[in-house]
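Re: cytidine-5'-triphosphate structure - here you go.
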Amino acid sequence: MLQNKNILIGITGGIAAYKIPLLVRLLKLQKANVKVICTPAALQFVTQQTLSVLSEEPTLVDFFDPESGQWNHHVQLGLWADALVIAPCGSNTIAKMVSGQCDNLLLTTYLSARCPVWIAPAMDLDMFQQESVQTNLKTLIERGVSIIDAENGPLASGLSGKGRMAEPETIFTVLKDHFTPKNSQFIGKKVVVTAGPTYEAIDPVRFIGNHSTGQMGLEIAHVLSDWGAEVHLIMGPSHLEIPSHIKTTRVISAQEMFEKTQNAFIGSDMLIMSAAVADYRVEQTSPEKIKKSEEHLTLNLVKNMDILKSLSLSKQPHQKTVGFALETNNGLQNAVEKLEKKQLDAVILNLVSEHSGFKTPTNKIHIIHKDGRQKESEIASKSDIAHLIVETLNQWIFD
Ligand code: CTP
């Protein structure tokens, strides 16, 4: 649930600062809004430009922008943030947080923040063991600051021990878990999501395809992952960028999608088929490019396997299957027929219109449960629709 969350990252001076661009990237891929404040010392280890490019926001250091004269308002920053994470957080900043000093923008923002605060301490092992540091950390915990514990391992000094900053992926997971809805039934559940079109080859350069972009399925995968599911996305040909934390298998044809989905569904809890699978393939793919020698060209098409139907009819009792029904007319009736014929737990009706269907940024759906419950959405962004779908399945499917 990191989407649209305002995450403020504070960076203090320490070698681990070089790892924070990766944290920014991970958060941005989840569509979080990220702003970064560096202490002046942090800039010896990471550049403002790198962080600005990745966060798509100016990286803040001073109270006043030296060029524009603009005031970086620490109170506004503190109120803007849904979460503040200071990483790496050195012993100097930890001590100042305890004593309430505010001689830089990061510390004043910390004092103004009303949101949850995490720090990821990073220092050499002997510094980390100092009683003063440990006492300061305890004080911060007592005051409600969460510590993302330092790790054991090689340190920049050449020594080895506890003091390394937690890895960016660990910090990312802490933030993600914080925003995961507490009523999520998806936590730890394995969900296979298919998305995108399939391409059925005619010859080495041509194919039969459709206009699906894969966006709806990708949005669903995003939200499920935010809700704590272990998602395996089976993606047909698509130009969309897929975040690295979503396990993805790319496929081209319906046959390939069937094989990969079938394998992924073994041991999974749910299948959501949002892919626009080609219903037919060319009976004989030409090994060479077909020349335009004849006036007419006839292609013999044969039916593709119905992936959803096949996997749904052979599912285990605990496995749930959800399909889409893309319709231009008689939507509800056709969707219910598909739900029954394919023995689905729920079907999502997608009526094709100028606001919904392929290649549109928005969608409008009906979700129909096998027991007859229905929910209808407004026209909304595919991301909002994905939230509605996951929220509804969370309530309905695991009853
Ligand atoms: N589907 C599938 N394998 C196919 C065709 C469709 O798994 N060969 C899945 C889709 O991913 C979707 C559901 O079945 O979840 C319904 O797809 P849709 O194209 O709406 O319906 P079809 O069953 O193909 O029937 P028709 O095209 O005749 O409407």
